[in-house]
Amino acid sequence: MSDKIKTRGRGRPRAFDRDMALDQAQALFHAQGYEGVGVAALAEAMGINPPSLYAAFGSKALLYAEVLDRYSRASPLSEPLIGPATDPDARPAEALTNLLRKAARIYSADPATAGCLVLEGERSTDADAACRARSCKDASVQQLHGFIAVTHPDKADVVADYVAAVMSGMSADARAGHSTERLTAVANMAALAIAAMLPTA
Amino acid sequence: MSDKIKTRGRGRPRAFDRDMALDQAQALFHAQGYEGVGVAALAEAMGINPPSLYAAFGSKALLYAEVLDRYSRASPLSEPLIGPATDPDARPAEALTNLLRKAARIYSADPATAGCLVLEGERSTDADAACRARSCKDASVQQLHGFIAVTHPDKADVVADYVAAVMSGMSADARAGHSTERLTAVANMAALAIAAMLPTA
DNA sequence: TGATTTATATAGCGATCACTAATCATTTCT
DNA sequence: AGAAATGATTAGTGATCGCTATATAAATCA
Fold first, then answer.
1. In the predicted model, what is the mean pLDDT of chain A?
2. A52 touches strand C (CB under 7 A)
3. Residues, CB < 7 Å to strand D
4. Which of the nucleotides in strand D have any atom less than 7 Å away from a protein CB atom?
5. Cα–Cα distance for residue pair A144/A81, rounded to 1 Å
6. CA A85 vs CA A151, A152, A191, B11, B181: distances in Å
7. Between vectors from CA B127 to CA B27 and to CA B129, what angle results, nearest 5°?
8. Closest CA to A114 of A64, A65, A183
9. What is the model's pLDDT at position A3?
10. Cβ(A58)–Cβ(A83) under 8 Å?
């Protein structure tokens, strides 16, 4: 039969699914933040003991880094732009407006994991965690910048910063319990500035 | 001679200035956040021992509450609006734009205390601290709302939320080390949406 | 089968957290 | 002066933090 993705090694096989464990860790970090959750709680949610967590992920900080990476790939700050960005006829103002509206929906969809994992992680008191989240955000803003620069190179700096700032504010509002409608209203108003800055011309 | 503001009581007089101690506490909380600073560090910065801190302020949470209150009075989210709000001929769009520009300057003025104490406190992992900061923010947003409602009652909800969201995003950017110019550029772009929503008519 | 390798579970490490009991010092009251 | 009241100091409380030493279980290798 076919080989597994990775040939099983020598020692005792791992008794838990690494990806499912990451799912649990991501949910906990998203719900309670980096400092709000301890390794004991993480291990329990994963169904393992702390030593297994350290053997599989190295440390709490490295586990968090993996979660950030995972989250960024699954639900990036700039996800809906990847497609349009490759289209030379893309309409940036429209795409960015849709991005904000989508964020309004996602951030307030599940009260248990309100807001953006990355943007909230950026505010962490732990220097290491905040730095990792910041890098994650910067990468997304850079992607945003590249997308805007295709059609409006001189305004890409401001517009990318602006969109990120609005999303950060919406993330905070989502954590405060604001409804999807309330967030969407903010997104729609924010879109007015985008339309003014990036005329379809 | 004249009586002091408060007649001196019976026991041993306090050996430190309560207001100056609050200044130090505010600086520390602003620099490192509620969870980032411990009572030992607070007491040392205030030049006192932990028991004196508890005798004078009750607890870390109550001290933080006092600091929030103090900060809100000295540098409120909506400070520049109090004056104009009493003027029936106020131009809200202009006032809000100035508010955002002022925030851009204040948030990035001192790298050691970047961002807004209240808006950053809102993201705290500690439930109690986050709730207190949230109340503080809500009060400011409410004030903002009242100011806008004078001339544009139907749009006050969205606009107040929008301004608060942008300020929250700018606060995060300030903590990430963004320059005053970069923050001001975002403020100016954000003002476009305000101008579009609140025509001088 | 026996050696090697890796994962597991138990238990606990030192450090730090917010907080305080006990004692002493300094003031005002009678 | 002596009693009463309040602040300051020392030294530590139990709880939780991230993390790990140790021993055992389960797999592959020779």
1. 91
2. yes
3. A 8-13, 35, 37-41, 49-51, 54, 59-61; B 9-16, 48-52, 55-56
4. 4-12, 16-22, 25-29
5. 8
6. 10, 13, 18, 72, 28
7. 20
8. A183
9. 36
10. no
CATH architecture of the domain with residue range A75-197: Orthogonal Bundle (1.10)
The arrangement of secondary structure in B76-197, i.e. its CATH architecture, is: Orthogonal Bundle (1.10)
Query: Which residues of chain B register pLDDT less than 50?
Result: 1-5, 82-83
- CB atoms under 10 Å from CB of B176, counted, come to 18
Are A165 and B161 in contact (CB < 8 Å)? Answer: no
Token couple for A152: 């409006």
CB contact under 8 A, B165 and A161: no
Q: CA-to-C1' distance for B133 and C25, Å? A: 38
Q: Rounded to the nearest 10 degrees, what angle do helices A156-175 and A127-149 cross at?
A: 130
Instruction: Judge: A168–B169 Cβ closer than 8 Å, yes or no.
Output: yes
Find the mean pLDDT for residues A57-68.
Answer: 98
Chain A partners within 8 Å of B41 (Cβ): none
User: What's the Å distance between residue A68 CA and nucleotide D27 C1'?
Assistant: 32
Non-local (6+) Cβ contacts of A79 within 8 A are A99, A102
Cβ of B3 near strand C (under 7 Å)? The reply is: no
B190, closest residue in chain A (CA to CA): A193
CB contacts of A162 in chain B (<8 Å) are: 186, 189-190
| Tens of pLDDT, residues B66-122 | 999 999 988 666 665 544 555 555 689 999 999 999 999 999 999 999 999 999 999
Q: Distance between CA atoms of A159 and A164, rounded to whole angstroms? A: 9
- Decide if A18-72 and A75-197 have a common fold: no
Locate tokens 């295709």: which residue? Answer: A150
User: Quick check: B79 and B106 in contact, CB under 8 A?
Assistant: no
The domain defined by A18-72 carries CATH number 1.20.1640.10: no
Domain boundary assignment for chain B: 18-72, 76-197
Read off the pLDDT band of A2 (50, 70, 90): very low
